[in-house]
Amino acid sequence: MSKKIPLFLILPFTYVITFAANLPSIPDTIIIRQWLVCGPFSVGTREGITEAVEDPATLKPKPDDSLNSGLVQGGFARWRQVSIDSAGWLNAEYPDVRWDTIQKYYGISGLAAVGYACAEFYSPKKSRALAIATRIGSFIINGLSYLGDVYGNNWFQTPVLIDSGINRVILRLSGYADQRVRFLLIPVSAPLISVTSDITAPDIIAETETRGWLGIPLLNTTENLLNNVHLHLTLLPRHYERSETKSSFSVIARSDSDEAIPIADTTISNIPALGVKKPAIPVQFPALPYDTAGYYLIITARTGDFQHSDTIELRSRLITQPHKRTFLSAIDSSAQYYAITYPADYQPDRTYALILSLHGAGVEASDLAGCYKPKDWAFIVCPTNRRPYGFDWQDWGRLDAFEVLQQVCAAFPIDTDRIYLTGHSMGGHGTWYIGLTSPDRFAAIAPAAAWPSFPLYVPNFLQRTIIFSEPSKLAIRDMAARPDNVPALVDNALNLPVFILHGGDDDNVPPIHSRTFALWLNALGYQYRYKEVPEVKHWWNYPDGTVCVDDQELISFLKEKRRINAPMHIRFRTADLAQSNRAYWLTINRVRTVGRDATIEAFATDSLIDIHTSNITRLTLNLDRLNLHSPTVKLKIDGRVIRGKFKTSRPVTVQLDRTGWNAGTRGKNNQPGKKPETYGPAKQVMFSPFAVVYGTKDPELTGFLRHSATQECLRWWLIGNGTAEVYPDTGGVPMERNLIVLGSPDQNAVAERIINRLPVRTRQGRIFVNETDLGEHLAAIVTYPNPLNPQRLVLCRFGTDPAATRLSLFWGIIGSGTSVPDFMVFDRSVRKFGWHGIRAAGFFSPEWQIDPASCFIER
Known about the structure:
Helix content: 10-25%
Number of strands: 57
Largest sheet: 8 strands, mixed
């Protein structure tokens, strides 16, 4: 049912703000034209630790002051004045650095660098502002660190607080070689901003009722928690006109008879102060005619005396065109999208193959879908990796790909034995990564222009962790990074056909990466095809207009393959049971030592199943999937035949104990322990809905902990297109979620109930691992089943004192390639020397206890 559009939806809007105890906005834009710049300083790729300063917040430079730098001629980088250009950009060029020489010696890794830019500005009073920090990973204002717009999206604006008097700003300039960034502060236009440039929305499919989810970022620019924010969504038909000026945007009706379609009414609560929440709202669009101009969606937000409307454009698409569909993610209850191209001459009563295509860095999934010509035999589906950059298709990116696969298989007639995985560049890496960790899910894979792993793509040998840490510490770090080591999983491709595509002159991802993978597959005698196209670079089109990702040899290779469901010979390796514990008819339930590879090779005949294992103590054999002719079969594991015969019509679980392998489960291994859904390490806390809980018991630390919780949620939004909840420790904490708890027991009431029940705890200003006293002035990160709800995980960040609790926030988790194990205890030297400052670290045993085989503890 439709109704006349209310007047307030079509006219420029005015509002009154009556929020109490809020600082005023800065009255005008603040542009800092003169900066003191110093650098560059060498950093190891994907580590970010410099030799320059331990804490950038302490910088108070004067012109011609200097800092040691190994990159600069003479060994000293001097602070020098640099003016922004006419477009407002700060160009941090370093004339005293011989970048060409460094690159010739170290390769691209030598160009990874950090610089700093410092400035001061005056404000007559305390104020609020929005920071535009383009291509800046982080910045500091008056000692507090804020998240910047590292990708230069231009929609990410950070709410900040300004002091009265002199304010100090420090920019962290990171990247390769010289850097170019932009920073300014703009007035706060409203207490609540709907970030319309980052809305996750489905396309409207012509003549089809469209259901889906809408993700709307709501940026709270006030110092108050916002509850009961009412959102009203209205769709305007195509006969509305758009009126656009430099200062306003409105939608104007052509006549009084124009009507709008109500789409949703909902109320959103718990939007953190100076933070963001991107709720998922269920929407249903009626069957509407195709309109090349699209439709307008009016978003009206109301809270207290504030009310405002924004307009976004939704695409109108024919079902035969590539289009976007949205779904509710089980990771964090956020709205995510995937792009889909229907088969040519689609018939719902037929079954079709599915080509799951993974995009490269900076590419939108919806753009990738348009690079394929429709197939009469397959759907083309492109997930998002959560963002165009996202997670390199690892961690949350991998989960996103499988969520999309599940959504599509449930909604469309897909032949699950004809699902193919392909991708280009970063998506090619994702194809290797997802395909080799889950080889039984696909009929074939086709990586294009793919890189294999972080250390092989951009070597990390300049990381201070690698340079300074002793081998026993590095062993734990390497265990934490091991699940990302894709080449180590190449054995898993035994039953997985592979097509490798690369441009012969690719200078972005050199073809040596694909050639090497082909050599590895060839050495194993595996089925693969390698195609290198001469004289083309990273991305190319063929003379007939075909895009490289739609290469006809690649597509033909996929089309002829069917999944091998029950191979008689399996090879499988995994470094993390939470990431991957299943291969065809085998499931690894438990390992001996967490953090070390588990490997298995199995041969099946009608009379005998012969299995060889390493680092496995419990295993399930789904014999019913093998389709053996014999009703029973013998089991031989690691050279020993298990007593009795086993029915081939049902699964059997076997367990390794002191007497060897036996059928069934018994003893301590049958007690609750690590399971794939509660396995660790730290990042798994954010693989399902989570909340960040900050402490309020220490008044001097509460502001910092609240700020840190808010910035973590902003980071999750920026990098993961996600939504998260922030709570104080004073009540309402959702124990049904995984928790990230900030603060020690004397700083956080929730931590007080949890931390001293963990194997790593703090007591009387010291940290203990079991009963080993590691000393004072230490910080810790611990991941463990929540003692208040063991079905969920808790990640605790705490220290022995306020300074150490601040230090506990040092290690980031939201990002691919992070190497944080189950627990870490460290001192302040990690700020300059990485893992050299680790005092204890490791993985808990399968029973969630300290295990010397997977831990380092300094004594």
